[in-house]
Write a structure and sequence with these properties.
- By secondary structure, the protein is mainly alpha-helical.
- The chain is 85% helix and 0% strand.
- Helix 6 runs antiparallel to helix 7 and helix 8 crosses helix 9.
Amino acid sequence: MIARALTQLGEVARLEGNLTEARSLFERTIPMWRENRHGTGLVDSLRGLGDVARLEGGFAAAQLLLEESLSVCREIGARPGIAAALQSLADLAGARRDVEGAKGHYREALTLWGEMEHPDGIARCTQGLAKAEVVEGRLDLAAVLLGESEALRDQIGAIVPPVERPHYDRVMATTRDTLGETVFLEKWNEGQKLGRRAAALGVGRLLG
């Protein structure tokens, strides 16, 4: 289906940081999905466009798009979509400096990803929680969470997407510089052990 191919291309463009191209692709697909009453395709495009709007600073537009994506996911019972939409809403709350809102959404998404044993989703939420802890000044916990998310990514060969890399590097640098190298590595290694244990036991069983 053309709409599916365009949606996938939009997601690739978004992850690579090509936001203008991503926006164009997602905007083309949304009317196609609506016309065909294809719920799962629609939620992917809505979420993708919402993420683009957030990255461009259009927080109000992002909120509407992501809330619609979440609502449709709940209507059709698409649990991966629910988790992904909650994760995107958490990212948006973090961008707005709403730390408690971000943490609440990340935790809800993390529970769902854990139940589905989805290591990449867990890694992304754990990374997001680390950012929130940095904002609140809990750098030791942030270092543990960063180490855990990196270990989970290593287990599946995933990387931090290019569009997220600058922010991720700033969080890492702030955490390392504030804690100092010795304490940072101690907490990072603690998180690495947690991440490897999660991967070995099955992330859903460990979180449960």
